[in-house]
Amino acid sequence: MIEYFYFLRKAVYLDMFRKTGFRYAVIFIVLLSLFILPYGFFSRPPAAAEVRTERAAENLIPSAKLRLSSGADPGPAADGQISTVLSFEAGDTIRIETERPAEALYVVWDDLPGPWTLTEGGRRLPCGRNAVLQEYIPLSGTQNEFFLELPPGSAVCEIALYTEGRLPDSVQIWEPPCAQADLLLFPTHGDDEHLFFGGIMPYYAGELGLKVQVAYLTNHKYTEKHRVHEILDGLWTVGVRAYPVFSEFPDIYAGSLEEAERIYEKEAVAAWQVETIRRFRPSVIVGHDFDGEYGHGAHMLNARMLAEAVPAAADAAQYPESAAEYGAWNTPKLYIHLYEENTLYMDWENLKLSSFGGRTALEMAREGYRCHLSQQHWSFAVRTDGYGDCRCFGLYRSTVGADVRKDDLFENIRLEPAQTPEPTLEPTAEPTAVL
Question: DSSP characters for 245-295?
C-alpha cells in the first residue's frame, strides 16, 4: 500500500510538470505539503505500539494455590467478595503459589491490620505501615511464591495478585493524608460528602488536582465496617487520592441537637476538630448546614462546633496539646452548607470535567454516592433543591475578605507550596469580618 501511494504521488507530480509548467507545479506541491500531508494521506501508518492500548493486568489468584499455616480454608480471601472475611485470631501465614510472576499484591482488609510482613524470593517486605484498608504493594515481577505473615486479630476481605499491565479501576493506590490540605471537608457520615457537598470533590480534587482532605466526625468501623469500604470507593471514584481520616466517635443517630449533645461530648468534638484543622492547615474548610440538612442532630453538632473550632484553632492558648504538636492555624475561609449570608452557588450541573470524560460535577457526585450501596434503599439523593441543595454554600468566616464573583470557593486565595510551620504558643491575628 505504501508503494502504491508512492507511485501515485510520483505520477501526480510528473503530470503537473507536463500540464502547468515548473512554477505552478512547485506551488501545487507546496500547498499539498501544507494542507494534506499533515493529515497523513501520504504518510506511513503509525507503528503498532502507537495504536495498541496497554494490556489489562490479570489477577492470578483464581488459579493460584493458597495455603494457611493453620490449615484453615483460605476461600473467603479469594472469592472476589468483600463481604466475606478470613480472620486470624492467633496470627497466621498464607502461602501463595502462582503460575506466573506477579507485579503487585493488593489486599483488602476488614480492619486496619497493623504491621505485617510479605516475603517474596527471600526478600522480606514490611507492610501495613501506611494504615490503609485497601493496600497496594508493588512486587519485583520475578517471583511466583509469596508468604504473608499476618498479625493476630487481623482479617482479610480479599487478596489479589496482578500481572504486569493496566490495573482494574477498582484498585485504589492511596496517598497518605495531606501534609497540608488546600481544602478540608468535615462530613459527619459516609455519603454526606456526596449528598451535601456535591461537586466539590470531583471538581477541586479530580479536575483541578488540589489537595483535598476529608475528615469524618463519626467512624463506621464500630457499627458498620462495610461503610468504610463504601467511603473509600466513593472518594476514589470522584478523584480524591489522600486517604481520609476518622474520629473515634461511633455513628449514633440523633434526632436533635440536644440529643447529639447527650451522645457526644462537646469538648471532645471540639478538641478533635481543632486538632484536625491544625494538622492539615487548610486554605478552605466546608462544613454541614447549621440546621442539620434534614434535621440530623449530629450534623447540627458538627457544624456548630466547627464554627467555634476554626477560630479556636488560630489561638494557641486553646487546646495547647495540639498547638504544641502542629502549631496554631488561622484558616482563611470557612463555608457552611446552606448558610444564607454571603452565599455562592456552584453550578455543578453545567460544570463539565475533562478528567471524567466530560461528565458534569453533579453527575460525578451522584456517581460517588452510588458507591454507598448500603444506603441506596433510603430516599436520599444528590439534589439541587431544598435541604439537599449541594450547590449552595455561605461564607461564614474569612481572613481574606468577602467573595465578589461568588463562583469559586478559592476566590481571594493564593495557593502556595506547603510549608510546615514551627509549633507556636503565640496567638494569631483576628480575621477580617465578612462584609
Answer: EEEEEE----SSHHHHHHHS-HHHHHHHHHHHHHHH--SEEEE--TT-TTT
Question: Whole-angstrom Cα distance, residue 75 to residue 162?
Answer: 18
Judge whether 419 and 356 are in contact, CB under 8 Å. no
The set of cell numbers assigned to 70 is 493453620
Q: Do the Cβ atoms of 101 and 142 come closer than 8 Å?
A: yes
Q: What pLDDT band is residue 337 in, cutting at 50, 70 and 90?
A: very high
3-state class of 178 per DSSP? coil
User: Is domain 183-398 annotated with CATH 3.40.50.10320?
Assistant: yes
Q: Could you read off the pLDDT of 93-116 as tens digits, one per residue? A: 999 999 999 999 999 999 999 999
Backbone angles phi, psi at 116, to 5 degrees: -150, 175
- In the 8-state DSSP scheme, what is residue 319? S
Helix (H, G, I), strand (E, B) or coil at 357: coil
State mean pLDDT over 57-86.
94
pLDDT at 2: 40
Enter the C-alpha cell of residue 122: 527471600
Neighbours of 165 (CB within 10 A): 13
> What Rg do the C-alpha atoms of the chain give, in angstroms?
28
Is pLDDT of 34 > 50? no
- For CA atoms 351, 357, 363, 369, the dihedral sign is negative
State how far Cα 235 lies from the chain centre.
Answer: 4
Instruction: Give the bridge partners for 134, in sequence order.
Output: 108
CATH number for 61-162: choose from 1.10.10.10, 3.40.50.12780, 2.60.120.260, 1.10.760.10: 2.60.120.260
Distance CA 150, CA 170 (A): 24
Residue 280: what residue type?
Answer: F
Which parts of 128-261 are beta strand (E)? 134-138, 145-150, 154-162, 183-185, 212-219, 245-250
Residue 3 forms beta bridges with which residues?
Answer: none
Query: Residues with Cβ < 8 Å from 134, sequence gap 6 or more?
Result: 106, 107, 108, 109, 171, 172, 174, 229, 232
- What is the C-alpha to C-alpha distance for residues 418 and 412, in angstroms, rounded to an integer? 18
Closest alpha carbon to 182 in 83, 281, 261, 90: 281
The single-letter DSSP state of residue 78 is S
Cα three-residue angle 398-313-287, rounded to 5 degrees: 55
The 3-state DSSP class for residue 7 equals helix
